[in-house]
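Worked example 2:
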Amino acid sequence: MKPTLLVLAAGMGSRYGGLKQMDALGPNGESIIDYSIYDAIDAGFGKVVFVIRESFANVFKKQFEPKLSGKIETAYVYQALDDLPEGFTVPEGREKPWGTGHAMLMAMDIINEPFAIINADDYYGKEAYQQAADFLNSSSDENEYAMIGYPLNKTLSDHGTVSRGICETDQDGNLIQIDERTKIGWEGDMIYFYEGDEKTEVNVNVPVSMNFWAFKPGFLPLLEKEFAGFLKEKGHEMKSEYYFNVAVDNLIKKGVVSTKVINTESQWFGVTYKDDKPKVQEKFNELHYKGVYPGKLW
């Protein structure tokens, strides 16, 4: 059974100023998603599931369906604020989406095979998709997952702070815990995370989660159960977010699952801010020039 790729593409792009997941960045108008799917097909993925918002579904499908038809099976699910487990409701006045963990749960009814998950606005590199596919095709333990780990210093923006999940591993390369840091940035040659008026230096090479993970289908019911616990504790807050990697962290500490950190040499880049766009366009031009990608993807 070929693995599935789950693409989180429902983000609002508030810092970027638009639907960056559909923005033209390649030399022939390709979006980052185009490269992600192209690399996933090469690595042997058989289906792609997009988590999007219904408000832009028609525009999204019009952009991607003609390219992908006949190349990979596609499916779409919609992230809605009020799509919550039984017994829970959206607090009055809340507009912020519930986060990556909630987005994943939208696909619970249509993913029944091993799968990998990515952000729509991150470029992960060819090798990373092959590493994820190799893990999913070789791991037989339903409760063993994997995370593609990138060194922190290769994942920052020159135009502002970013959020990253900083990972601690044991001597066998298994994940011990993730510390979710919401403001990380450069100061000269040093990297710091900021909390209020405090700043703490971070090792430049520490592996971080860029939301490229490999899961078994049994993870989704566990994620739903963890989400119910989150809603009980923080569901009344206006801006609380449910991150799927925090749920994995909880499950690891409970001894329910294990997660390998697969360090990759693949190049990562993304568009957190509008000012990131020219640099990303330059990198895609270079990848085409070097022959990593053909003149036209599709």
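Residues 219-234 form the longest helix (16 residues). The radius of gyration is 18 Å.
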